[in-house]
Design a protein that fits this description.
Bound molecules: zinc ion
Number of helices: 12
Order of helices and strands: HEEEHEEEHEEEHHEHEHEHEHEHEHEHE
Structural class: alpha/beta
CATH superfamily of the largest domain: Medium-chain alcohol dehydrogenases, catalytic domain
Number of domains: 2
């Protein structure tokens, strides 16, 4: 695949910075055009206009698979033209509206990017992740690939400044994994097979290792990802293009995996072959247009439990606690750190699997 993300930069980078430095009320940030392209623009730094607005000076923001999809040609994920994308941000509160009580200027915050309505039938049942009237920071409203983000206070979670910046930046994807993992009852020692050794699959792997899993087995077809999993200390990395994955998982586990995670989104039929009898399958990856056939007989005959999981239900407090306790270091996934002007390069590195996770660092000082 090729990345057609382009910048229309009205000035040199140096020129933009000079301009920004001479105009402290402005910041340069890429704005999404309608066709999955970006355009660098110099804009005024936003000021709180709503009582619950919080202005965050962004330190860094991770590039997510969602961003790759938004910037694909044609786009594979919807986003509102004109917005700033990016949702895996960490930053410092620098201004706030009068109604904000739980955050102070100087607080370190991370972003829970889905703003649910609180009023629809699903929100009223406590199923916030199924809200039918939500906004998403970085997809439908302005996000964090910018020196400054304005967000309502309820989208921000305070995190201790002692958590390294690059661990905090992975709060949102880690929260998705936390929300998914907690749906499948887990016992210490469970053997876990994870299909897809990209950033999400490896976050699941880190999380299960922290929880006390037995063997953790990653399955992928990309040599870069398989090697990465082994370098992280995972127990096995299986190349699905080269071996019979089900036979290999059985050889490694005896009966098959206690828990299987599909972090890809179209591997359901493979996943049910890797689970032991009575095991559990977590479906996490999303491929809206794939509709692979599934052998229903296997699920029934071998008593499998299948969990469809979407972004997690209230995973944020536990995710903060995990990061603050330093139980795992998601920053181990970060292979590249680039300035905002090289966002397109970062997207290309991830799309071509030359990078595991790219962080964009904001350089306004
Ligand atoms: Zn993300
Ligand atoms: Zn709702």
């Amino acid at each position: 695949m090729s990345c057609d993300t382009q910048y229309v930069i009205p000035n040199t980078r140096y020129g933009l910075r000079t301009h920004a430095q001479s105009n402290p009320n402005h910041h340069a940030r890429p704005r999404l055009l309608g066709d999955g392209k970006l355009e660098m623009q110099l804009r005024p730094v936003p000021r709180p206009t709503q009582p619950d607005d919080v202005l965050v000076q962004i330190e860094a923001c991770g590039i997510c698979g969602t961003d790759l999809n938004i910037l694909a040609t044609p786009p594979a994920h919807k986003a509102t033209p004109g917005i700033i994308i990016g949702h895996e941000g960490v930053g410092i509160v620098v201004d706030r509206g009068p109604a904000v009580k739980n955050l102070a200027i100087g607080d370190r915050v991370v972003i829970a990017n889905r703003l649910t309505c609180g009023k629809c039938d699903y929100c009223r049942r406590g199923l916030d992740n199924q809200c039918t009237d939500y906004q998403t920071i970085g997809t439908t409203i302005d996000g964090a690939f910018a020196p400054y983000l304005m967000a309502p206070a309820r989208a921000l979670w305070q995190i201790d400044p002692s958590v390294p910046r690059d661990d905090a930046a992975l709060f949102e994807p880690l929260a998705c994994a936390v929300g998914s993992v907690k749906r499948a009852p887990f016992q210490p020692g469970d053997n876990v097979a994870i299909i897809g050794a990209g950033p999400m699959g490896l976050l699941f792997a880190q999380l299960y290792r922290t929880l006390g899993a037995g063997k953790i087995i990653l399955i992928d077809v990309a040599p870069y990802r398989l090697e990465f999993a082994l370098e992280m200390g995972m127990d096995a990395a299986i190349d699905a293009s080269a071996v019979d994955v089900a036979a290999e998982v059985k050889r490694l586990t005896g009966l098959g995996a206690d828990i299987v995670v599909d972090a890809v989104g179209n591997q359901f039929n493979q996943a049910i072959k890797l689970a032991r009898r009575g095991g559990q399958v977590i479906l996490f990856g999303i491929r809206p247009h794939d509709n692979p056939p599934v052998n229903q007989y296997t699920i029934t005959r071998y008593d499998l439990t299948v969990h469809g999981t979407f972004v997690g239900l209230h995973p944020f407090a536990q995710t903060i606690q995990l990061l603050e306790a330093r139980r795992l270091q998601p920053s181990a996934l970060v292979t590249h750190r680039l300035p905002l002007t090289e966002l397109a390069k970062g997207v290309e590195l991830m799309r071509t699997q030359q990078a595991m996770k790219v962080l964009i660092e904001m350089d306004i000082r």
